[in-house]
Each structure stands twice: as structure tokens, then as C-alpha cells.
Amino acid sequence: MKKIVLTALALTPYFLFAGGFQLNLQGIKGVGMGGAFTGLGSDASTVFFNPAGMNNLSGHHFTAGFNYVMPKVSLQTPETANINQTSPNATPFHFYYSGQLNDRMKFGFLVNNQFGSTSSFEDNWQGRYIIQIIALKTFMFQPTMSYKIHDKLFVGGGFVYTRGSFTTEKAVPVASATTTEGKASLSGSGDGVGYNIGLFSNIYSLKKETSTTDFRLGVSYRSSMPIDLPDGEVEFTNIPVSLQNKFPAKTTFVSKITLPSVFTVGFSVKHSKENYSLEFAYDLNYTAWSSYDTLAFDFANNDTPDSKTTKDWQNAMTHRFGLDFTYKQKYSVRVGAYYDKTPIKDGFVSPELPDATQLAYTAGLGYKVNDKFSIDLSYIRQSARRESSLESAGFTAKYNRIVNVFGIGLNYNFSCKAKETTPSIN
User: Fold this and answer.
1) How far lies 312's CA from each of 12, 227, 234, 349, 355, in Å?
2) Would 352 disulfide with which of 5, 119, 357, 422, CB 3.0-4.6 Å?
3) How far is residue 26's CA from residue 336's CA, in Å, rounded to a whole number?
4) pTM higher than the cut 0.85
5) Which of these, 366, 369, 362, lies nearest to 408 by C-alpha position?
6) Distance of CA 336 to the CA centre of its chain
7) Is 413 helix (H, G, I), strand (E, B) or coil?
């Protein structure tokens, strides 16, 4: 019984701060193109995708948007024909700014949600000793600078501050005189600091009489980020008196979780003519999930055994593809796809995180209202199936996950005006 309780506790923050709940929704135009944006640098979301790309923009650019995430997860177990998550919809948002300090220096800033989710089940469901309710909110803040080495090569970087909070509940398999099981409720918050750096190059521009073809390359690196959880709180309810020394009404814990680093190489080709442009983009993400080899919790109550759980996640690659067709620099149609390999091995799949290798499809629209203001729309369709187990809890299931994501973004930009000079009289 003791082992089951502590295993359930250890699963919670790990799922929240990592895994398939990394929100790759950071820019509506980029989402419509499958998330392939590292080698584009065409709006303010480049502050996130590749900070060096800010030097590909002139003037001041603002981008704000949010996504409406509609998850639907069901599972089958040998004992139960169908179990549905009761998770609510989510609305992650983002804001980006890129501004011009001078001809060589750019400054940017972002606020976004890079991790976050809510999963919940009915109180009496079969896996209630693993999870009942879990919720996460994260906010990232990143001041950023970019420098033009010469016309074809830019560098950039910024510091990232993250603040996150979570809550969760699950049943505890102990019986008392008034109830057949107890309950564990966890809550906590933590913060961490990392960085984001990048290179951006306008490799080559092929100009003909009626057309131009631009080749661009981007490289970015988002560092790993240690998240300290210094004062998490645990509450146990409906615990028999004989076990309250080990599972007291309240205690605290200390833990540390490291978010993985992400290395990305992106390439784009844009062919432009008088009335239209066609742009292709490809990104390759390499996410170092192997930083999650173990997860440890140190409980303040000396009688509550500390926990150390082996995770054994593996590094994973994601391939992203996108196309943008723009007519008369005003109307845009976008499509994309990405192939995302799960980092979770068989034997480690938990019901609140049924992550699976998947091929997802995206689409988007853009409309330029005038020279300063434009609107973007995006859509993602995810569908994945997997049969696997969580061996530490003796839980096996077939999972079916469908996620629809709708996004809208607003963009505003204005150019820097040249300073007027008054002729001198000699």
C-alpha cells in the first residue's frame, strides 16, 4: 500500500512539467505551417522560434494569439470496456514583440504558455489510485536581443524565466471506519531560468526579371531548465488513525525537475512573383527527454518515506513541414504536418499522459487588412492510438486520443521613421 501511494505522488509533477504536454502552439502562422518556423523569421513569434530572426524584420512588430484546445481521450482496460477523460478545454495564449533599436540591434520580449494541461476522470473510475484530477499552469517570460553580423548572418539570444503551479488529487487505497479509501491532494509552485539562442542566415537570393527566390537557414537552441519545487504541500484525508503518522493530514515536500533542451534546424525557400508567393519550410527538432531518468521527492515528515522513481525517457525527434501560399501580399493559405515520436517507452505510459508517436496535420489562413494590421487563423488535428502499460502500478490499457486545436492571432507592425535633419548654413 505504501509503495502504491508514493508511486502515485511521484507521477504527478513529472507529467505536468514535461512529456506530451509541451504546448507547441507558439505562433498562429507557425502552427498553420506545422510548427516549421525556425528558418522563416517573418513575424514577431521568431522571438520564440529563433531569436536571431528578429533581424529579418524591420520596425516594430507585435503578435498576440490564443488557441482553443479540445481534447478527447478514451481508454479500454481488460476490466472496463470504455473510460473517458472528463478533461475541460484549454486556452493557452502567447504575446511577442520585436523592436528595432538601430540598424544592427533588435530587442524582443515574449510571454507564453509552453507547458500546461488539465486531465480528470470520474471519482470512482478504475485507475483512481493513479490519478483523478491534475492541472497545470505555466508562464514563460523572455527578454531577447538580436545582432546583425552582416546582411546574411544574424545572431540572437534571451533569458527565459518560468513560473508554474499545479494541483492534483487521487485516491489512496486505505480503509477507515467511515470510508473505503482515502485521498491525497497535492499542490505546489516552482520557477526556473534558462536561455534561448539562435543563428539566422539569408543564405542566397536568386533574382530574375519577374521573380525572386530566397533561401534561408535557422538554428536555435532552447536550454534545459531546472524547475525547483521548494515547498510543495500534500494533504491526506480519510486516512486510518494507525497510518496517520506516515500519511499525516498535512506535510510538505522538496523536489527538482529539469525540463529538456530542444535543438532545432530549420530551412525555408520562398518564391515570389508580382501577384503571389509560395514558401516551403522544414524544421527538425531534437528534444533531450533523457534528462528525465529519475524523479525524487523528499518529504518533510520523517515518517513518510521519500520517493525515487525511474522514468527512463528517451530523446526524440520531430519532423515539421509547412507551406504558405500568399496572393497579392494579402490573402494567405497554409498547410502543414509534423511527425512526432513519443519519448515514453512501453511500460511507462500513464492514463493521464497517453502519449504516442503520431502524424498530425495543420492548416491556416491569413488576411492582411492593411500595411500595419493582419489576422491569422490555424487548426491542428491530432489522432493517436496506443496500447501499453504502467508497470509500476500494474495498469494496462488501450488508448485513443483525438485533439482539435483552433487558433487566432492578431499582428500589428509599424516602421521606424528616419530622423529628419535640418540643413546647416555655413
Assistant:
1) 16, 19, 26, 11, 15
2) 119
3) 15
4) yes
5) 366
6) 18
7) strand
User: E-assigned strands of 56-151?
Assistant: 60-76, 83-84, 93-100, 105-112, 117-120, 133-150
C-alpha dihedral over 405, 42, 197, 362, to 10 degrees?
Answer: 20
The Cβ of residue 29 has, within 10 Å, a number of other Cβ atoms equal to 26
Triad 259, 53, 201: Cα angle to 5°: 110
Q: Which three cell numbers stand for residue 169?
A: 488529487
Rounded Cα distance, 382 and 71, in Å:
9
Rounded to whole angstroms, the Cα distance separating 360 from 399 reads 17
Cell numbers representing residue 91 in the block: 486556452
Q: What is the pLDDT of residues 76-105, one digit of tens each?
A: 999 998 999 888 888 999 999 999 999 899
Q: Which three cell numbers stand for residue 207?
A: 533574382
Query: What pLDDT, on the 0 to 100 scale, is given for residue 21?
Result: 64
CA 287/CA 196 separation, integer angstroms: 14
DSSP string, 76-103: E-SS-S-EE--PPPB--EEEEEEEESSS
Distance CA 36, CA 22 (A): 16
Task: Give yes or no for a contact between 34 and 387, defined as CB atoms under 8 angstroms apart.
Answer: no
